[in-house]
């Protein structure tokens, strides 16, 4: 049976393993991952990188029904205890991996930050840990076409919770904070700016897990040596930049970076260049 036939037999959103038709046919190594997504059928071989994709075109009624069920489930989602979904796993299917790759996040990095997947929710799970290493928040990111909303969060007030790229790190008077909207951008900024941390000063990427400031997050950011906002180039990002400048600027030095793309869409070198420019203003 061809890889495509095997993928077509999979339920929507599921993955399976098989031999790679390019480098391992008949070897029983199962080095390739089959995937059935809303967009199509694909295979990815971890050994040779073979990655064919077959577009499905128009979705079937069964697939549309499954997507409708997923979105209805998301609308009813409740978590007032901040607990990672019970079916969380570290094996991320192709749709999730492609989303992570598109943000410049490698397998080594997503394992470092405990990023995983929920098959029940059909979402990449992005955990957020506090200074003591305790889970304080998480986001479930949609990775399939037509999935809504983009993020699922615990259904309690966010207060001062934020994602900080350097684990077990609190914001202090020696910290330069680059504030981003999303977690992937904060990770990329944190990784790219390790070289900029020197003489006791530390540079970290922070995600507000959105664009809205709270009293608690304003006070936490106000402890920093300096704060640099790097929000999306849209109306929500422009408002967030202004709000942060007005609120946090009363407590510490605040500057901003304006770019056409999200931080995660740039190379590490470009990220450092943008930040160095904002620091030296």
Walk me through this protein's architecture.
With 281 residues, the protein is of the alpha+beta class. The protein contains 8 helices and 14 strands. It has helices at 3-8, 61-75, 94-102, 107-112, 183-192, 215-221, 235-248, 268-279, and strands at residues 15-18, 32-36, 40-45, 53-55, 88-89, 116-118, 123-129, 135-142, 151-152, 163-164, 175-180, 202-207, 226-229, 253-256. Helix 5 crosses helix 8 (268-279). The longest helix is centred in the first third of the chain and has 15 residues, at 61-75.
Based on the model shown, name its key terms:
281 residues, alpha+beta, five-stranded antiparallel sheet, 14 strands, globular
How are the SSEs ordered, and which strands pair?
Blueprint lengths: L2 H6 L6 E4 L13 E5 L3 E6 L7 E3 L5 H15 L12 E2 L4 H9 L4 H6 L3 E3 L4 E7 L5 E8 L8 E2 L10 E2 L10 E6 L2 H10 L9 E6 L7 H7 L4 E4 L5 H14 L4 E4 L11 H12 L2
Parallel strand pairs: 11-12, 11-13, 13-14
Antiparallel strand pairs: 1-2, 2-3, 3-4, 5-6, 6-7, 7-8, 8-9, 10-12
Helix pairs in contact: 5-8
């Amino acid at each position: 049976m061809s890889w495509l036939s095997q993928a077509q037999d999979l339920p929507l959103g599921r993955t399976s393993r098989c031999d790679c038709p390019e480098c391992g046919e008949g070897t029983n190594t199962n080095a390739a991952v089959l995937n059935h997504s809303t967009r199509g059928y694909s295979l990815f071989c971890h050994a040779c990188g073979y990655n064919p994709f077959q577009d499905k075109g128009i979705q079937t009624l069964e697939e549309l029904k499954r997507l409708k069920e997923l979105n209805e489930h998301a609308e009813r989602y409740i978590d007032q205890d901040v607990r990672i979904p019970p079916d969380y796993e570290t094996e991320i299917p192709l749709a999730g991996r492609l989303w992570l790759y598109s943000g410049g996040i490698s397998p080594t990095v997503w394992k470092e930050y405990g990023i995983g997947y929920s098959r029940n929710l059909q979402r990449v799970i992005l955990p957020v840990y506090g200074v003591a290493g305790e889970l304080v928040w998480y986001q479930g990111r949609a990775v399939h076409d037509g999935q809504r909303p983009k993020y699922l969060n615990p259904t309690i007030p966010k207060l001062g919770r934020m994602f900080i790229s350097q684990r077990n790190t609190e914001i202090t008077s020696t910290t330069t904070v680059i504030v981003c909207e999303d977690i992937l951008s904060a990770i990329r900024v944190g990784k790219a700016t390790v070289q900029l941390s020197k003489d006791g000063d530390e540079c970290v990427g922070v995600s507000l897990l959105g664009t809205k400031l709270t009293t608690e997050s304003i006070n936490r950011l106000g402890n920093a040596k300096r704060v640099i906002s790097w929000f999306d180039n849209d109306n929500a990002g422009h408002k967030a930049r202004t709000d942060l400048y007005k609120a946090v600027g009363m407590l510490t030095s605040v500057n901003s970076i304006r770019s056409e793309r999200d931080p995660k869409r740039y190379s590490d070198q470009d990220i450092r260049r943008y930040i160095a420019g904002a620091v030296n203003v």
